[in-house]
Amino acid sequence: MTLSNKIRIDIISDVVCPWCIIGYKRLEHAMKELGVEDKFELVWNPFELNPTMSLDGEDAVSYLAHKYTMSVEQVKSTQATITKNGAELGFTFNYYDGMKTVNTRNAHILLDVAKEFGKQTELKMRLFSAHFTEKKDISNRHTLGELVQSIGLDKDLFLAKLDDESARMKVQEAEEYWHKQNISAVPTMIFNNELIMNGAYPIETYQKVLTELLEKRLKKSYM
């Protein structure tokens, strides 16, 4: 399939959302097991779980406990479950004392630019790993520049976009669009602009969805 003939999957997510990387990894496993990675086009769309978060960030456990009305013990239990799920998919969650929940607007701006270079998924994975595995501050410009450079992109070009008001507004407008589409939680995946799935599903569920989409596409090609 050429790029234009690939089936599009829109993924609305935030880079500090652990279930977003789990959902993606399960989707990725489903594609690999079916051998259909080349038949789908992934497009990452912005969503900020904490849009009013300060640039300094906040202690993650305290913030999440307050936001979701949970005890500290419940937050840590959830993190343990997330860590287990990640390990099963080959992704390492390194939750640690003092870990922060950070502002992700700048990360989303760079992801939008990366789409123009065909490296959006690659940058998304670096951001996930930096935040959850490598204990890095992905709201920090220097860190963002290093991540961009690590995947072969022009650090200066990308960082300049952070001061570009039009680039900032583009991300804000995209977020507003998804909110108007009643997307209120992430991850949300939209398959071929027709099937919407909220949350992280089992690999088998994604395999079924992918297979049905490909069969539907094949039937159309014979009509």
From TrEMBL:
It holds the Pfam family DSBA. One of its GO terms (molecular function) is oxidoreductase activity. Coiled coil: none annotated. PANTHER family: GLUTATHIONE S-TRANSFERASE KAPPA, THIOREDOXIN SUPERFAMILY PROTEIN. This is DsbA family oxidoreductase.
